[in-house]
Amino acid sequence: MAETSGEFGETAEGFGVRPAGAGDVPVVKAVIDAAFQPYVERIGLVPVPMEADHAANVAAGRVFVTGEPVLGLVVVEERPDHLYLDIIAVRPDAHGQGIGGRLLRFVEAHARALGLDEIRLYTNAMMWENQKIYPRYGYEVAERRADGPYDRIHYRKRLIGRDRP
């Protein structure tokens, strides 16, 4: 995937975010595992991001990382009518440093650069911390539904007509 350039000349690097490379696969796995491990006991299941094919996601250009060493990352997928934010993960020892917000702002700029006017994501209903975070960044609940054993809250953020940062 090419470097993302937003409306205001923002690049992935302008956010301190870069595309992950093949050498990043082990750290991508480590960050995701560390971020989601606390939820295993709470939800009684291994969260889906922990079982993702990280090498395939990196090879497809869907993973963007931040920090040196890597402190956080997003996995995104361009869809015809929206950008799907599949995974956002921040190392637990880096919480409270603004990394999640930086990644969410990057995702918005990335969606705009791709000409998409909406971002969608979901979170497990038992990950209640996320239910406080996403609305602060303009995400609204679209629906709640069970997908197999997972109780998920689906969010969306519409970008058309939003004030520019």
Automatic annotation (TrEMBL):
SUPFAM superfamilies tied to this protein: Acyl-CoA N-acyltransferases (Nat)
Entry keyword Ion transport: no
PANTHER family linked: AMINOALKYLPHOSPHONATE N-ACETYLTRANSFERASE-RELATED-RELATED
The species this protein was found in: Streptomyces sp. NBC_01393
InterPro entries named among the record's database cross-references: Acyl_CoA_acyltransferase (IPR016181), Bact_Acetyltransf (IPR050832), GNAT_dom (IPR000182)
Domain N-acetyltransferase: 15-160
Any GO molecular function: acyltransferase activity, transferring groups other than amino-acyl groups
Metal-binding is among the record's keywords: no
Protein name according to UniProt: GNAT family N-acetyltransferase
Keywords: Acyltransferase, Transferase
Pfam families, sorted: Acetyltransf_7
